[in-house]
Design brief:
By secondary structure, the chain is α+β, with helices and mostly antiparallel strands. The protein folds into 2 domains: about 1-250, no CATH class; about 265-365, Immunoglobulins (Immunoglobulin-like, Sandwich). It is built from 9 helices and 21 strands. Strand 4 and strand 5 form a beta hairpin. Helix 5 (about 165-180) packs across helix 6 (about 210-220). It is elongated and about 80 Å long. It starts with a strand and ends with a strand.
Length: about 375
Amino acid sequence: MTIKRSLPWFFTLFLLLVLLSAKTQPAGYYDAASGLSGNALKTALHNIIDNHTTIAYDWVDEALKVLAEDPDNSSNVLLLYKRTSTPKTNFGSGVDNWNREHLWPSSHGNFGTSPPEGTDLHHLRPTDVSVNSDRGDKDFDDGGTAHPEATACNFTSDSWEPPTAVKGDIARAIFYMTVRYEGTNGETDLEIADTYTNTSTGNGSLGVLATLLQWHNDDPVDDAERTRNNLIYSNYQSNRNPFIDHPEYVNLIWGTALAAEPTNHVTYFSANTITLRWTDAVGGVLPVAYLIKMSATSFDNITTPTDGTVENDSFWVKNVSYGLEEVVFSGLTPGSTYYFKMWGYTGSGASVDYKTDGDVLQISLEAR
């Protein structure tokens, strides 16, 4: 349903109630997503947050006056990109006014300012009018030239880099949008792209995935973001941003983290050899290969691989066929202890990304 603008005196009362009544998520809100990863988790979260209560576009500015209120000055809002405080009454289209910024630009999906996409408060923020115009419909990415007005932002002809303090907030809003809008019920199918997108097609894509993942991991959820999420849920839309409540969901769906370490490690011995066998990892982001390093001295002498660096032939690499895997170390000295560490990884060349979450698998064995 759509809430329409009411009388000014009623809305003033409504705003007071908003400030007093924000609630956290109800018990069991994410039960349907428990234990899932990958597309299964994405689908479950979509079903949880779908069909939210919408508001009319001409009510968005009033909601933003609450959601972005300056904690040091209740008459002001904090601008997303400039990181400055400006009077709530300064809303408009003139120079130095503030207006509504769609973090997911409407041109990346042709949804305009119509509900639900165009008025979804989870991706709407107050910004300076001219800064909003300069961001336009650029993809999110690092780099470029410092903006002359929003000096903590950088930009190119294709990309926009926001201030460090809000990078994670923006990334989680974009992750929310691509889960909330899956092309059902006449809505746009929004998806995060691996690279810059062609906005002229209005195809519902926005980049850049790797950058947004990095922003999410580098700028964790804070109390201000949680409060905003609670207000949107309890007083406006009756749905939540899952990636604020459960930041780990990001990596379970798209993330830099690979799936859990392989299980069922079985070891076999024969003359001067050690054979390592394992069952492949399972989960949302499977490795394309495994890297195993060996030392005859200690675990400490086995260095952690560096992302973007392909290890040389002195280390063991096992390609994945998704089943029982094995690698044989031969020419060993009987009675000596050898130490092994294993990583899964994705990508190749400059894009190789070694597993960094959790503990690296460690095995010490004696050759026979």
